[in-house]
Every structure is written in structure tokens, then in C-alpha cells.
Amino acid sequence: MKKLLATLALGLSLGLGVFGTASVATAQTAPAAVTATAEAKPAEAAAPAAAPAAAAPAAAEAAPVPVPNKADTGWMMLSTILVILMVIPGLALFYGGLVRSKNMLSVLMQVVVTFSLITVLWFVYGYSLAFTEGNAFIGGFDRLFMKGIWDNVAGTFANAATFSKGVVIPEISFAAFQATFAGITCALIVGAFAERIKFSAVLAFMVLWFTFSYLPVAHMVWFWMGPDAYASKEVVDEMTSKAGLLWQWGALDFAGGTVVHINAAVAGLVGAFMVGKRVGYGRESMAPHSLTLTMVGASLLWVGWFGFNAGSALEANGFAALAFINTLIATAGAVLAWCVGEALMRGKASMLGAASGAVAGLVAITPAAGNVGLGGALIIGFIGGFACLWGVNGLKKMLGADDSLDVFGVHGVGGIVGALLTGVFNSPSLGGPSAMGDWVTMTMITPDAYSIAAQVWTQAKAVLLTIVWSGVVSVVAFKIVDLTIGLRVTEEEEREGLDISSHGESAYHG
């Protein structure tokens, strides 16, 4: 216990050390400033957006101060609860059922404690570095320890921008929603090196990776100054230059294809290589110990994912409804695709395959949820199902890594497929809502002006940057942890099972 506490203290000090090293190109100058995040798309539909919205120009100072709509606020709180459901118990049970019984509790612990750790770090410094104005790669320090959320002088809460002009939500509701995104992203990684890593090593790695990979990628993809900042054509270039790098490029990521799934999958794959294969891998049976629990976990993931995707509209509006139904139809399509693929390959469709297909569809539709029409969502689901089936079979063998629970095969492959196809089916000529062409007048790119090739290229650049960024950070982070506390347990402890050797308890008795 003393060793674990010492490790946590070391990890926190490493994470907090970023305070003195991160560079900030610009600082917020207006106390009432509100930031936001999104992709270049409809004001009502984009990736999880923002923090405090940019101050209105002097000419509009007399305009009424926006007041949060209670329905929007309630929807954001419900969506946050749904994402928590995805992690605890959804992801925990999905992963837990897939490992051997002697490692059940270790996986549950890694998921629950990782989520808790990241939630704390999020409110200490993570939110500020992801969603306040800084430079194209990282935010600033205006919200350290969530300072400024409550205005003691005015006696009011700060508001956050959405994707509609003059529409806001309480900033604390946005911060809580985004905390769950950070938490589940880190929790996803543990599936890649399950059954052989030290518990203390997991936590130390998460502090480093969250600080230097998740936060910069989230800022690059989702941070912008909000629709109200685009008050006139004269300020467009200035406002855009303050956004995250990938937002400036025009990359579309409605709810986390790059930020969450590709980011986590690359970290997991690196971990699978650097931690090494499980003892007996390829020679001994390592079949899931409870597909029943895996099915329960997958079902909870599907239910919770409606908050994950539809909540990313930040308003209870049509784009939330679009993301909602796309999450339903794409996932159903992926389940069918996986089952068909398995039947063709092996002659039988399995329960594990159906559950995996559901997760594959959820992953693939995430970046596209509010960015494509229903037909596009169904196609993305089908392609995502088949692609991820290949990812956990053919690609996994090609890579040769012991990715225990197929984190890269599902989240990496599914995230890449979804991100690229978003650029295709966002096209209005293919039933998509198109992207925002002018934030000043709130007009969309017309069908004849939309270029599928150009948008897919932008999506591909975003995917490649995320892969490289997460890959480099992961290698360095795992190496630091290996040199300081070591990555994996001894062979004796691994054979005994991590439930007993790492936590002194057992999931099952008798």
C-alpha cells in the first residue's frame, strides 16, 4: 500500500509539473470570455465543444446576456451520467468478462481507479489545458482548479458556448461532460495489456499519457472561440487562429474518433508491445471466462453511448437527435456485419462476435454521429463491422502484438474507418448535413462547393497526426514507467493471477 501511495504521489507530481513547462502563446484578456470547441460544421452539430465563449464586440454590449436553457442543461447532465454508465459498469464488465477468472478483479480495478484518477486530474488542470485559449497545441491556465467557474462578484456561474449563436450552457456542465470523455479514453487503454501489468504502472502511465497526449489532442481537435466570436468578417482570421490546430484544418470529429478511440488505441498497441506478451500466449488457453458479463457490458456501452454521441451536440436539438438515431442504426448494422463475416469465415456467428460488432459500430459512428445522414451512418456501421472483424483477426496476426482485448483492432481500426468515412458522408450530395462554411452568417457549404476528396484528405491528416502524437508520447511514457517502477508483474504473480497477487482478493470462491 505504501508503494502504491508513493507511486500515485510521483504520478501526480509529474502531471502537475506541466504547470511550469507548458507554453501559452496568448492569454484570455476579457474576464467574461467564453471559449468553445468544435469542428467546422453546423452551429448545432460538432465535436464536444467548449469552454468560456468569446466576448461580444463593443457594438453588441447592450444585447441581452444569454441565459442557459434548462432543457439543454438537463440534457448535458443526463448525457454525462450516460457516459459514466459506459465506463462503470459498462466497460469494466465488458473487459472483465473477456479475461480469465483469476484476473477479473484486476481489470475492474484498473478501469474504475483509472477513471477516478483522470477525473480528479481533469478538474485540477486537464480541463484548463484542453479547453481554454493557449496556442494551436495546448490551452492555458485560466481554469486551473476550475477557478472562475463561479463569479463571486456577480453571483453567477460562467457559461459555455454551444454551436448556435446566443445559446449557452453552464460551463460546469460542459466541464463535467468532458471529464467523462477523458476518463473513458484512458480506461480503454487498459484492455491492451490486461493480465500482466503492475497496477502502479497503469496509474503512473495514465498520468503521463493523459497530460501529454489526451489533453493536446483534445485541444487541437475541439477547441475554438465559439460562434459568437465570429461577429464580423474582419475578425474571422483572428478567431480561427486561436483555435486548435486540427480545428483550424477543418477536421470533423463529432464525439471522439481521433481524440478518444484512435488516441487510446495507439497507446494500447504501444503498451502491448512494450509490456510484452502474456506468459503462455499462443500455447495456453486464454478464453474469456464469462461471455455473459461481456454481453452485459456491451449492452451498457450501447445504452451509454447515446449520451456520448448525442450529448456532443451540446444542445437538446435536431443534431442531438441525428446523432442519437445514427448511433442506433450504425451499431445495429455493425452487429449484423460482424455476424455475417464470422459465419462466412467460421460457419457460425458467435455471441462474442455480436458484442464485439456492437462496440465496433459504436466506435465507427462516433466521429460521424452528427455529421452524416442515416444512410451514411448505416454504411459506416456495416463497413466498420467488417473492418474491425479483420482488425481482431488478420491485422492482429500481422502486427504480432498481444493486444489482450483487441483495443487496437476495434477502437483503432473502427476509429480510423469512421474518421475517414465522415469526410465522405458529410457531403450534402450523399445525405449529410455538410459543414459550416461561414460562422459569421451561419451558412453551410453548398452541395456543389463541397469536396469529398478535400475533406477526406483533411480527415486523413488528422488521423495521421493523432497516431504519431499518441505513439510518441506512449513510447516515452511507458519507458519512463519501466525505468522507475517497472511495467509488469513477475511470472509467478502472473500465473497466480493479478486478483490475488496485486489486490489480495478473488472474484469467485468455491
Automatic annotation (TrEMBL):
Keywords noted in UniProt: Ammonia transport, Membrane, Signal, Transmembrane, Transmembrane helix, Transport
Gene Ontology cellular-component terms listed: plasma membrane
GO MF assignments: ammonium channel activity
Record-linked PROSITE patterns: AMMONIUM_TRANSP
Subcellular location: Cell membrane; Membrane
Transmembrane segments: 75-95, 107-125, 172-194, 201-225, 245-275, 287-307, 319-340, 352-370, 376-395, 407-425, 462-481
Residues annotated as signal peptide: 1-27
Ranges in coiled-coil conformation: none
Bilayer topology: Multi-pass membrane protein
Main location: membrane
Listed InterPro entries: Ammonium/urea_transptr, Ammonium_transpt, Ammonium_transpt_CS, NH4_transpt_AmtB-like_dom
Residue span(s) of domain Ammonium transporter AmtB-like: 75-508
UniProt keyword Lyase present: no
UniProt entry tagged with the keyword Transmembrane: yes
Record family assignment: Belongs to the ammonia transporter channel (TC 1.A.11.2) family.
NCBIfam families listed in its UniProt record: amt
Protein name: Ammonium transporter
